[in-house]
Structures
1.
Amino acid sequence: MVTPTGLILLFYLVFYLFLAGMFALTMYIMLLTLDDYKPTWQDRLVTPGMMIRPKGDQLEITFSVSETESWDNLVQNLNTFLSPYNDSHQAQTNDNCPADQYFIQEDSGEVRNNPKRSCQFNRTMLEECSGVSDRFYGYNKGQPCILIKLNRVINMLPGKDGQSPYVTCGAKREDSDKIGPLVYYPPNGTFNLMYYPYYGKKAQVNYTQPLVAVKFLNASMNTDINVECKINSNTLATGSERDKFAGRVSFKLRINDK
Ligand SMILES: *[C@@H]1O[C@H](CO)[C@@H](O)[C@H](O)[C@H]1NC(C)=O
Ligand SMILES: *[C@@H]1O[C@H](CO)[C@@H](O)[C@H](O)[C@H]1NC(C)=O
Ligand SMILES: *[C@@H]1O[C@H](CO)[C@@H](O)[C@H](O)[C@H]1NC(C)=O
Ligand SMILES: *[C@@H]1O[C@H](CO)[C@@H](O)[C@H](O)[C@H]1NC(C)=O
Ligand SMILES: *[C@@H]1O[C@H](CO)[C@@H](O)[C@H](O)[C@H]1NC(C)=O
């Protein structure tokens, strides 16, 4: 004999089981449509942000030339970051690609062309900022190197007509007389087209993100300098209203002489 309360409980039990089933089925179908190698949803025409190394909690590089301890951790940070860029390591893992053109490795229809190869970015391409010819990256002479990278965006094509995007740095207006001359490595501060498009971590296992180093040759001492670096590209827009961090990075540099 089933009581009315029993019937209500039974009804809810069946009802909730049905809901759970619906949920599981929907989830299952969702997951089936996802592709391991490509993001399903991606905002087109995004300009990625940029980041600097060495990087602390804030975007601030402060040190005293004469106090080794004040820049030693910055140098260590760069050493660690650059170790996968060692020429020997790059020669083992990546290809020496033709410059100034995209390294396209499309899948042909349903046939996957994975894993995909990546191009060599040799540490020595950073010359004076490689930590090889000058193992203190200029910090001991008050001529620090700062590395800049462009955040990865899958399938992004950052230039057209064989023109690689390049980085330029400058001081915020009030500091323009303090920044002094800069030198960029690789020459002209370019992110060569051969490092693009990026196909994602899973498809391109040995991908090495290209870098640009900027060296401050005669920045004023004992004063804060607000520096801004930005990407110059004929396909990417910088600093739109919507995202002021797109294609640019700002940081504070202070070099003390004692
Ligand atoms: C990379 O090269 C630097 C200097 O040339 C060296 O000190 C470091 O041990 C190397 N790292 C690896 C992982 O081989
Ligand atoms: C990188 O260094 C390796 C080893 O020295 C060399 O064989 C290779 O040609 C270099 N690649 C580039 C792109 O300069
Ligand atoms: C990745 O690097 C390893 C060596 O570290 C190499 O054996 C392998 O072939 C590389 N894979 C691709 C897809 O480049
Ligand atoms: C740097 O830019 C100048 C002027 O745009 C150009 O003539 C030169 O070939 C470039 N150098 C490299 C290494 O790309
Ligand atoms: C470096 O900058 C100072 C001014 O801040 C200037 O007096 C000096 O001549 C510059 N040195 C060189 C080598 O350009």
2.
Amino acid sequence: MKSAEIVCIMICLFLLLSGSAALAAETPAPEQVGLTVSVPTSSPEPTPSPTPEPTPTAEPADKWEALKMQYAADDTVQELIFVQYRGGSTAHLELWQKDAESEGGWKELLSCRAHVGMNGIDKQREGDKRTPTGDFGVLTAFGIKGDPGTALPYFKVTRDMYCCADEECYNKIVRKSEMHHKCTGEHLIDFKPCYNYCMFIDYNAECTYGKGSAIFVHCYGSKKYTGGCVAVTEKNMKTILTSVHPGVRVCIYQQ
Ligand SMILES: [Zn+2]
């Protein structure tokens, strides 16, 4: 082989090697290849619209039906009072009674406007001017006026009765003459006409000091709100008292 041929072969080899090196440098790394492949450059098919979410079935609007279903199976409960909070200090009140003849097993005895706390519902503590939220029982009924003929236990308010706010008998209705303490709570007979007829609900029945006391369903006063109770007209209060039985539930929730 002539030296010129050797030089020519060497040059060709050099060109081949450098060419393949250049190619290798241009070859993307495997990750880059994968990325490039995964990103579609065009979308020939129209993007299908997402499947509509099924409508949730447990919205607050169904809470009331859920309560009716829950208590339909509970023989200790004959009536449900729904206090459907509508913002501000207003609510809608419904009284339902079990009735085998009626659709769903319940018939409506009363549907009316109601007032709740000045600051609405979701009571947390004494003095927050809120009505408690929840499903409550009734401890007793009472009033400045005499028993209207209720099936609930009922007492007529006397001058020495207080709903106590002292730590020692907090959230209990007491006779001051029997308790021998100063009693900073509500002097019941002073709350006319609100307490003409009342139901004492079992919010804070454990009597935790400061959690809230004297939560009643009572008659309207002169204001369009309460201090944390539920109020309806005296006529409606009388209808409630003469319709309900021990075991009645008072259910207070956002509408
Ligand atoms: Zn007291």
